[in-house]
Amino acid sequence: GTISIGGIDCTRDPKAAQHLTGVVIDESNLYAELTGFDNLCFCAALHGMRKAERKAEASRLLESFGLSEAAHRKFAGYSKGMKRKLTIAAGIIHRPEILFLDEPTTGIDVASARQIRQLIADLRRHGTTVFLTTHYIEEAERLCDRIAFIVAGRTVRIDTVENLVQPVKQKHVVQISYASAVENIQTRLSEAFPDLEFRTLSEGSIQVTARAGIPVGPLVRFLEEQGAEVAEARRMRPSLEDVFVEITGIEADAMRKEKEKSGGGGGGGAS
Fold it and tell me: How buried is residue 258: exposed, middle or buried, by Cβ count under 10 Å (0-12/13-18/19+)?
């Protein structure tokens, strides 16, 4: 096969398109003993940027990423969120047309994750093509135009967000939370309401899905008759996570927790 980036045949000359791409891996590859500013200048030099240009661009990126005050501190002393932001800045300092981001918001604080998502949205809006791998389904839905579901290294579905979500838009979904644990409650519900689909989300939480309307009142009464103390019954908007579960059979929340616990590659993901 062949690989072509920006009309350049990379199978013949892999380095010819290097200036067109930026890569930000899960683990930072920056130098711990260098300052944030020096790391950015070094990365810019690798891409052939002139001294004045790389200094100006490094300062601009540090400012836009909220890292100006830490510009002259060693990278080793940065927090995890700061390290992730500087690593992304290093990946885009040469202004690539295509950017590859591997799990950019995994394992960092909420404020840094929000800022990184905003930066990704800004890059996309200004014409950068972004390839994003993530185990956060809602992040993919918010940031991506096209999404690929990958399970065990194989792409099982690829399409636009709109096309992926379309089949579940017609579904009615209700999430019921209850306080008292009831043995075999999902089986009991399925037997009592055969036209509805039930999925246990967690202990004390169950999701009800149907093509037609869902009789919430009878469901709540049935649960209470079985000894469950219902706290809430809420109608939900079908999401990309529902599509992911339907296509792959993998519970997205369980997959994400396993990914964070192991710190390694999970069984599936969205790209």
Answer: middle
CATH 2.30.40.10, applies to 168-240:
no
Question: 157 φ, ψ to 5°?
Answer: -165, 140
On the CB side of 64, how many CA atoms lie within 13 Å of its CA? 17
Check residue 266 and give its pLDDT.
Answer: 42
User: Which among 250, 245, 255 is positioned nearest to 167, based on CA atoms?
Assistant: 245
- Boundaries of every domain in the chain: 4-144, 168-240
Taking 50 as the threshold, does the pLDDT of residue 265 lie above it? no
pLDDT in tens, 69-93: 999 999 999 999 999 999 999 999 9
Question: Which positions ≥6 away from 126 have C-beta within 8 Å?
Answer: none
Q: Which helix or strand (DSSP H or E) is residue 224 part of?
A: helix 216-225
Please name the helix (run of DSSP H) or strand (run of DSSP E) that holds residue 24, with its range, or none. strand 21-24
Q: What is the mean pLDDT of the chain?
A: 87
Identity of the amino acid at 65: F
| Residue 242's pLDDT band (cuts 50, 70, 90) | confident
CA distance 258 to 263: 8
Beta bridge mates, 133: 102
- Architecture field, domain 4-144: 3-Layer(aba) Sandwich (3.40)
Tell me if 20 sits within 8 A of 96, measured CB to CB.
yes
Mapped onto helix, strand or coil, the DSSP state of residue 232 is: strand
Chain centre to alpha carbon of residue 89: 19
